[in-house]
Structure formats: structure tokens, C-alpha cells
């Protein structure tokens, strides 16, 4: 078992249950989500439009009910025909049904798209982080990319639409009520703040509980994987019973933390329902008394009674969705912090802009390049050159540092590096920063988490690989850096890739690849064995 077995889940000494996930935004919508995910920005706009349409249909339905009731009950008014009544009710009624369906459907699709987008970005970033620093925590990120990101589904699908409805529906309905009956509007305005006040008070109780539950889940997941990996050793020494007690303790701790969150969620739901019902009752009593005395018009009273309940619905739904929203926000916080250009690992790989504006041809020169790795160096003293008009391949076993050499050429590997990896233009000047990146077409290996965790993906790994390669070749960049470009391809498509790379090199482009594929190595004009050192 690893040392992680001793990490607590928030119910035992050493961990404060009020701990907050680093980087967690206190805003209802984390601004980093909108910055880093284009699907998230589109979904926010769509949710606001649907909320506005639903508010209009609710008001229209309430006005229709008020008109029908007043016309029917008032002896001096003409009673509308049944056909007219049905027509007046059908339009806003069917509109509400259609909008509710559109909200559910679009929420599901938007959540899947946003989660897939964040997983893809995070998986690619973690792959780079592991190569550069060897510090990617597998247990932490495995939980963040699975359980953590899955948690933002309810956040995106329920909380954000409800939030949009809160900011759009409540002021709109309150204005309509004020136009119909100012007294009812004042009563509603006074009682409305009670619900968010109690939401805040209850929220203080749950602060940190969800993050503690996620930490406990990460520990339990790591323990289970350690146990599976170590089963042959445990069986050999007849110690398979040893981890049972520890796993039981962790499981019980996780169960307890989950039940605490659920108890508070049920408590908050009951409190919100009570105050919403009480508020509607106060307005209804006032309307009833004024209808009896004749100080309020029947049409206005009936309309307000119909739509007053809708005034509190967004707040009640917001309270019900609050706990899933906190879990979603906390689950996504680590991923958003990783991808944040201001604080994440991306901020540490940005090169300063250079005044060099290179033009083809280029050459890539490695001089005694050595990069520390687990238990040695990989590569260890790589000296090589990849020139324009040639297809150059870096060969060697897994772990020899082939991918690291490509990243070093892009200045994405720095820690502990000795020697140099430089891209030089025709005049011998070293290209860096945007002057370099604007000339490079880069195809990394598809990260394993991206392939296995991207639930929205429909293409096979090989098909996705071909699509990525086609996209990079179409950019017409003079430098091609390709990491295992024929991986996961059948013989026909692999040979097609080799042909395309040969054509690119023949056209004067600098093509540097890593590969184990004999078909690609045979076609290369220069094959370089990458030296490595493993102690």
C-alpha cells in the first residue's frame, strides 16, 4: 500500500472539514469556465434565452387564466366561448412544454460537450506535465477527471439554467405583479430575501463537506488500485486479509461524509419549501381580503394568484440545485486551475516573444541533450540534427526519451535539462516563442486519459489519429514534429501516413518523428537511436 493510505477524508483528526478546494471560485459561475470552454459560453447564452422565453410563457398563461376567470365569474362580462378559452390556454401551455423539453435536451447535450472539452484539454495538459516535471499525481487526477468532472453535469444541466431563470424570471414576474397589484408586489419583495438568507446560512454548514468527500474518494480509489496491483504479492505471502480493515475504514469514512452532505441537502430543501409556501400564503391572504372588500379587481387578483407561485420557483430550484452545484464547482476547480493560463502549468511554459521571424528552411539541432527521468536520464546526451527536406526518425524503446526530445525542441521541457535542443532558421538564428510556434505543426501522442475518459468521443483512436494528422498537414507549416504518427493504424493507413510524410519532406519541410514502426523507420532518411540511462 502507498503512503496515501493515511490521508484522511475529513471525519478524522488531521483534516478540517471546512477545507476548501484550492482555486474554487465563490462566484455562481466560475469565470474560468467561460474563458476556457467555448461550449460553456454558448450554453450560458442559450440558457438565458430559454429562461426569458419560459418567463414570457408563464406570464402569458397567468394573464389568460385571469382573463378567463374574471370573464366567467363577473356577471356583467361576456362569457368567452369554449373554443376561445382553449385557444388562449393552448398557446402559452404548449410553449411551456416545448421550452421545458428544449431546456432538458440542450442541458444534457451542453453538459456532455463541456465535460468532454475540459477532459480533452486537461488530459493533454497532464501528459505534458508528466513529461516535463514527472509530478502528475495519478490518484488525484484520476478522480478529478472522472468523478470530479462528472459532478459538473448537474451543475451545468440544472444549476446554471435555474440561475439564469432567477436573474430573468424574478424581476420580470415581480414587475408584472407590481403592474397588476402594487400591494402584492411589495409583500413579495419583502418575503423574497428570506429564501436566499436561509440558503446562505445552510450553505455555511455544507462548506468544505463536498471537497472532503472527493478527497476521501480519491484515497479510496488509490487504495483499490494499489490493492489490485499488489494482489499477486499479497497472495504469494498469504497476506490477502491485511488490507481489508484499512479499506473498510476508508469506505466507512466515505459513506459518513456522503451521508452528512445528503442530510444537509434534505434539511435545506425542507426549509426552502416552508418559506416559499409561507410567502405565497401571505400574498394569497392579502388578495382574498381585498377581493372581499372590493378594493382589488378580479382579473388582477386571479392573475397574481396564478403567477405568484412562479416567483418563488427559481429560488426554490436554486436551493435544491445548490449542493450539486457546489460539488460540480469543486470537482471542476482543480481542472480549471490546471488549465488557467494565469496560474496553471500553461503559465510556466510561455516563451517571451522573439524578434526573429523565421522562414523556411529550418533545422533542429540537439547537442548533448540530457533530461532527468525516473531513475536516470532520458534522453541521455542526445546529439543529432534534423534538416529541411529530410524525414528524420528518433528510435528507441519506451522510456528512452523520444517524446521528451520533441518537447525539448519546443522549449516545453526545462527542469534539470542539460545540453540544448534548438530550432534554427536559414540564417542560423534560434527561433523561440511565437516565432517558433507559428512555424510548427505538432502531433503529440493521444493521451490515454483522453481516449478513455472522453465519453463524447465517437471515433476510434486510429480514426482520431488520422484526423489530427490531416489537420496538421493542412496547416502547411515548415516544421513537422510528430510523436508516433502511425500508432493505432492498420497497415493500409500506416503506409498512407508514411507516404504523406515522405511527400512533406520532399517538399522541403523539416519532418522529425518518433516511432517504433519499421515501415516508418525504413522510409526515414535518417534514423537516430536515442541514448538513455536507467539506474
UniProtKB/TrEMBL annotation:
Residues 45-327 form the ABC transmembrane type-1 domain. The chain crosses the membrane at residues 43-70, 82-102, 159-180, 186-205, 264-292, 298-318. Its main location: membrane. PROSITE patterns: ABC_TM1F (PS50929). GO terms for molecular function: ABC-type transporter activity; ATP binding; ATP hydrolysis activity. Pfam families: AAA_21 (PF13304), ABC_membrane (PF00664). It is a multi-pass membrane protein. Keywords: Membrane, Transmembrane, Transmembrane helix. It is found in: Cell membrane. GO terms for cellular component: plasma membrane. This is AAA family ATPase. It comes from Dietzia timorensis.
